[in-house]
Amino acid sequence: MDIGELLGLEQLTWGTLILVIVAAFAAGWIDAVVGGGGLLQLPALLLVPGMSPLQALATNKLASVFGTATSSVTYYRRAKPDIRTALPMAAIALAGSFGGAAVATVLPSAAFKPIIVIALLAVAIFTAFKPQLGAATQLRFHGHKHHIMAGAAGLGIGFYDGMIGPGTGTFLVITLVGLLGYDFLQASAKAKIVNFATNAGALILFIPHGAVLWLLGGILAVANVAGSYLGSRMALSRGTAFIRVVFLIVVVALIGKLGVDVWNENIAPALAAL
């Protein structure tokens, strides 16, 4: 029996499998530092012959939930994030992801992508020209107001993750830095806990549909966990300045990815119709 038959994908070759495993490792590393690993892992899965988009999404979430769990535990042990903020935010984000998934069934994500690209451009410019942003924790809200703002952010980003998905961890980090006032290290630590919840929520929805390819997902989970462990250790040892640089790189990559999607889904068809 060859590898394709073993994994339930007859056209899968060893070369494609190795490519997907490498992508899962790199995605785990990126997710652990600033989020946005789906930029690599999901497109790599979509290259697998015979795999449907739903199977790719579901299998991606299986691998990611293990990766975000690993980085969450590593950050918690070393950075000691305040779980009084992170856990309620994660619970609300889980509910938001369900709502986003429901909207995605009736409203195409392409309608929102131009807005997301503009928002990311603003984030990139703001972060690049504000070198002190996220250098130290200076909370902007306190008491109940802090938790209300964190919950609102969790709901909105969870909704986005359920509806579209790419860059959820990145949006969590910039929201925790720019809106709530955490430094990049503490923001990344909390973002992993919230991102784990949104991944788990989506996976719970996918499992009853039989969309998860368990054996392939398990292999990718191992690679994702290894990348997540390495990325979280590097982020913890190198600190806020390192995370800020990687954050800007990932944001630029997200702009490029979603910009291409906007061109292909909105602008190119409009030009062709002229």
What does this structure look like?
The chain has 274 residues and is mostly helical. It has one domain. Helices cover 77% and strands 0% of the residues. The chain is built from 10 helices and no strands. Helix 5 packs parallel to helix 7 and helix 7 (144-163) packs antiparallel against helix 8. The N and C termini lie far apart (52 Å). The mean pLDDT is 86.
Largest sheet: none
Percent range for helical residues?
A: over 70%
Order of helices and strands: HHHHHHHHHH
Structural class: mainly alpha
Distance between the termini: 52 Å
Strand content: under 5%
User: Looking at the structure, what is the overall shape?
Assistant: globular
Note the total helix count.
Answer: 10
Total strand segments = 0
Whole-number count of domains: 1
Could you tell me the mean pLDDT? 86
Unreliable runs, pLDDT <50, ≥5 residues? none
Whole-number radius of gyration?
18 Å
At a glance:
The protein is an all-alpha fold. The chain has ten helices and no strands. The protein is globular.
For this entry, give a set of tags:
10 helices, mainly alpha, globular
Q: What's the topology here?
A:
Layout: H1 3-6, H2 14-33, H3 38-46, H4 53-79, H5 83-104, H6 113-128, H7 144-163, H8 168-178, H9 184-206, H10 214-273
